[in-house]
Amino acid sequence: MGKKIGFDRLFVSSGAFCSINVEPASKPVGYDLYALRPLPNGVNKSSIEAPVADVRIITSGGSSIPAHSSVLGSVSTVLEKILDRPRKHRSSDKIVPILGVPCDAVLSFVRFLYSSRCTEEEMDKYGIHLLALSHVYSVPQLKQRCSRGLSKRLTMENVVDVLQLARLCDAPDLYLKCMKLLSDDLNAVEQTEGWKFLQDHDPLLELEILQFMDEAESRQKRMSKKIEEQSLYLQLSEAMECLEHIFTEGCTSVGPCDMEPTMNRAPCKKFCTCQGLQVLIRHFVQCKKRVNGGCSRCKRLWQLLQLHSSICEKSDKCRVPLCRDFKLRMGVDRKGEDGRWKLLVRKVASAKAMSSLSSLPNRRVAMSARK
After folding, report:
1. What are the residue boundaries of the BTB domain, all occurrences included (predicted)?
2. I need a surface site. Which of 16, 266, 297, 352 has the fewest CB within 10 A?
3. 139 or 89: which carries more pLDDT confidence?
4. Nearest to residue 349, comparing CAs of 226, 274, 237?
5. What is the CATH number of domain 229-259+266-333+340-354?
6. Is 31 exposed, middle or buried (0-12, 13-18, 19+ CB in 10 A)?
């Protein structure tokens, strides 16, 4: 790894089969490829006579692989067009040179065209070559198989080479896997020969990698910020529910004005939030600074009551203090209402609705248990 991937001959030769003068191969490959073809159910292979091979595939090492034009053309549109090109001599053999990759890789490629199968051993040895061949000769099924196989075999040593090939062969899934591995541990990849070669010969790809990492970091920051905001909205939504609970049913130390609080009451399910609100309410009642607007804790409760009023849909019957008063006041001052406040109200109302929906399955289970 770390060397330039030598597929130049492969990509160039794929479009120039008719102009290449190929000598007869000195190393014929004796392999019954037609026997690999899947047959319909109930058909015995021995009952079918294999047609005579009418195509010779020539490899870089001079080997000749006999094949059938009907099979090659049915799997690869590129090979179909090549085989349909007129030949100088009508009686001459159809010759398809596949150069630039090892002979055994070409044999594995042709074997896949017949059987639609590729072994793990073949993927270990020729995965990179098979990906290039699947792209050049337009074999999508093999391309997907190679993308998945190479994704599982990515290492710090080969990730740069595989990334270059994935980019060249238009394999987006494999490309993304490579980019993520590079982003996770760039320091280790920078020590490899592949990275050093990349810096010397492909600065545009190096820039592309760095831009991907920068965008990934920005996405992560945006996601973290969004998660924090959603957590805040859920907390405020829970606080709204606790306010209704405190002033409707009462909790351990604070309750409606027409109900005596009792310390024997069991804590509610959201007691952590409820307890904090009860402490805040008791402070609000006793605080002397709030008259002059100098108490931050009282301001916080005031804002929570105002937020509840903005969300509440039954202000006429609501028992939370000042709910109706805030509602009337908002009706008068609607024109001057802060846009950020309206956004907060929408987000908290949405979080409250989502929380209610998520709790429905639990309620149904509880009702079923009672029955």
Report:
1. 53-122
2. 266
3. 139
4. 237
5. 1.20.1020.10
6. middle
Structure-token pair, residue 216: 């990934």
pLDDT at 332 over 80: no
Residue carrying the six token digits 């490579």: 178
Question: What integer is the mean pLDDT of 120-146?
Answer: 94
pLDDT reading at 29 higher than 60: no
The gap from C-alpha 161 to its chain's centroid, in whole angstroms, comes to 22
Delimit the domains of the chain by residue range: 19-37+50-149, 229-259+266-333+340-354
- pLDDT tens-digit series, residues 180-224: 999 888 889 889 898 898 888 888 988 999 898 888 888 888 888
> Which fold would CATH assign to domain 19-37+50-149?
Potassium Channel Kv1.1; Chain A (3.30.710)
